């Protein structure tokens, strides 16, 4: 099964454009992981890095939750989905025994929660929680999320090439 990835429109209002680019990058990460075994998804890049495709999926679930549920929605997130005080990088560190199906389901759930949190809000909407003592708008969150996915999709491209030689997309 191929993950559908829709090219963002060439002309649209700002909200539609930003949302389309974010969805494009979400789908790109899914494509980078498509068709791989659990062991392939867990494969680390190079020591001492703990970077893996499965770790990126888990990380992006955390990031979606942080920005849309925590900052925009105002929920107090005292512990992450995968990270904890004892292991702040648990999203990456805990992949050796992690269930890929659970990680992908959690990531998709957080994407749906993110979409619901932002639905119908003007881009100027200020999040209910501050980040580092400053207000953050939905526009900033969307732009940041595009940047976050784009950066990690570059990592994913290299990881996928390491796993089976697949490049592009």
Distance between the termini: 15 Å
**Outline:** globular
Number of strands: 0
Secondary-structure element order, as H and E? HHHHHH
Name the average pLDDT: 95
Could you tell me the radius of gyration in angstroms? 16 Å
Structure summarized in a few sentences:
With 169 residues, the chain is mainly α.
Polypeptide structure, described:
With 169 residues, the protein is mostly helical. The chain is 56% helix and 0% strand. It has six helices and no strands. 33% of the residues are buried. The mean pLDDT is 95.
Walk me through the topology.
Blueprint: H1 14-33, H2 38-42, H3 53-72, H4 90-93, H5 100-118, H6 138-164
Helix pairs in contact: 1-3, 1-6, 3-5, 3-6
What characteristics describe this protein?
about 170 residues, mainly alpha, 6 helices, about 55% helix, globular
